């Protein structure tokens, strides 16, 4: 921390708590306390970059305020001390009449939340100080424009006035003047607008716009604190999985002005293209404007490269600062700047949001430049980003009708019905419709619609507009600034070149990689990343996609780093071969019940309903060769790799006729006096076996114990298939998994029979068979008694789907549709426990069972085969608790591989392995 302390600044508040830090006191490592914006302003100040002086109110002050409803007692005095120091430094006082100091009050949480919280610029202007600003600047128009901006932002943000009222008044002023942009309004027009804005505030807020500059600042600080709990901020945090208890810092920064004429302006720059990752000059610049004009997308900007011809001195300085920041942060930096009459000022920097493709390209570029190593490169990408890259793209050979082109802001191929407001987007999406949200420009209030939509299309704005930044953060397809499209949100239509009108509900397609907009539905083709994983595109080849090359390198990094192996959930040879191409190191779950459906269902039905031992034996005799064939194909596809075969597990009712349907058939036959002895016998059996809660009934190991011969038939089929493959010079590595075990006695009983069958097959075929036998841990009791169960199990595979159901008492098929949405909206869940493992509950049982299992049997193999095995966050947890492998569906294997590598490179992990 800097030792450059100002004598005017208080050291701490009551009890030693320090709630305010000057920009000279902080650094980028204090994001928890100063928020991302404040920490980075301090860091740029430390680097000697041109940052306007200011200070930051900490997140701790915000949390105290939100918890108690009152600001910390010491806060006002600390703010006063820092404000006095700022005034001394600037040589002017806040809002003084002759030459006022003006400040901005801006939010700044630890994690970037673009546009989700509040900002107020030009604090300190009043009816008196606006005259002083006019005299001091020599620009009457600038002063009144700044004042109307303050009243507009303060009225909406602090006093809760409907922002549309200000916009309507502004539009009316432009209509009266017969101009289309704000900059064409003259000082007299803006002076009248200020009067109109003040009347709006008085009418809507029930009070006058405050003339006391300190009151303005204090109210703005509270408004920023309150915006942490605003609806859009909470929605964004839920979407991005940002904790709700962090609070926001508040940054008080002396104003610099980009709206002082043509030699002034404001812009946003990226050290690399956030959409593609390519190096170059990327960003937007707007002359004679303030920062909100750029990010709001209200006026169309010019490319940053044009700044060179507008103001070469500032351009060259900016390029040097961008290089300094990228080398310092060792990453893509997102920069906000203002030029005030030829003087460049840095207002913000942060590690920039980027598309999935850009993330992979930039990570490998930075490795090649020697700025980061492989381990750090893995932390710069995520499994969620890799999953995005595996989405399909538009077929370039398809016959299409292009109607427009904008800025490629966030890639992807999105098809949906055009909707023109967020409410409709959410409503239609909940009805199962795919929609594209079409707006002139988006604002933070559109967030729920942006989340619901497949993609976002705007006619205004650039790569740094609200729509672009938020879409990139969410991985949503986005095309911005399609100027040739005339969007009429009131009439719910869009007019395209040539006069064709797209009405709400019409299908459109947008390509976030090219910026192209099409009428109708454009067909899609597989992503080149999927083609790479499938082996149809080879990295390193002359025609290899640049993105594929980057993905290939990152995956190689991950595979070298990871200790978790990755297996597939696969039930047939086709899925097994696909999984192997995707990098699977075996099968962690083969669900044999899937082999019994279809043509074999009748055989299983006869087995379950058999009245005599002869009937049962006949059914088993017919099933045995079919099962053996299944396993021969599976072991061939996965030759040399482990294949975990789960014995029959599903609820009994899945193999029986529907009781209602069968009852109707019997009733109809009786009414028609038709023969129905078989149906009646079947109905009686179904009634006898009917269960109120089949998921907790006769299934898994219980089924094997109640129906003699069922599990032994399956074990025999596995053993004979393994023997056949081995005699054919193959290398089968079968593992037999007993499902739904709750007590070691169940496992011991089944294991004894299985060992006997394996020995019989080995003797009969003259083959040495080493088939390991283990169990699925999917019941709380199994997890709690794992130490005992390990005495009879050579491996555990955690069935986290069922374990989540039984720990929570949730029926997944019911609760997700009934009340999970409410739980997520209320913040009871940050994410569904079926999507990401519940570390505190289910995860605690997994960790305890793994520990107990290893204490009993140190060489026990531990894996997970629920869908959590492919969830990025869950993979990190499984690495931490020391499992040996995760298993997931074939298409999630690359994601699991990547996340296993990221987990290993970010921590030492467990030494249990």
Automatic annotation (TrEMBL):
GO molecular function, a single term: pyruvate, phosphate dikinase activity
Cleaved signal peptide residues: none
Entry keyword Kinase: yes
Reactions catalysed, as given in the entry: pyruvate + phosphate + ATP = phosphoenolpyruvate + AMP + diphosphate + H(+)
Family annotation (InterPro entries): ATP_grasp_subdomain_1, PEP-util_enz_mobile_dom, PEP_util_AS, PEP_util_C, Phosphohistidine_dom_sf, PPDK_AMP/ATP-bd, Pyruvate_phosphate_dikinase, Pyrv/PenolPyrv_kinase-like_dom
Residues noted as binding Mg(2+) in the record, renumbered to the chain: 778, 802
Domain of life: Bacteria
Domain Pyruvate phosphate dikinase AMP/ATP-binding: 75-300, 306-357
Cofactors demanded by this protein: Mg(2+)
Domain PEP-utilising enzyme mobile: 433-515
Enzyme Commission designation: 2.7.9.1
Active site per database record: 466 (tele-phosphohistidine intermediate), 865 (proton donor)
Annotated substrate binding sites: 591, 646, 778, 799-802
Record key words, sorted: ATP-binding, Kinase, Magnesium, Metal-binding, Nucleotide-binding, Pyruvate, Transferase
Location of the PEP-utilising enzyme C-terminal domain: 549-901
Family: Belongs to the PEP-utilizing enzyme family.
Record's protein name: Pyruvate, phosphate dikinase
Taxonomic placement: Bacteria, Bacillati, Actinomycetota, Actinomycetes, Kitasatosporales
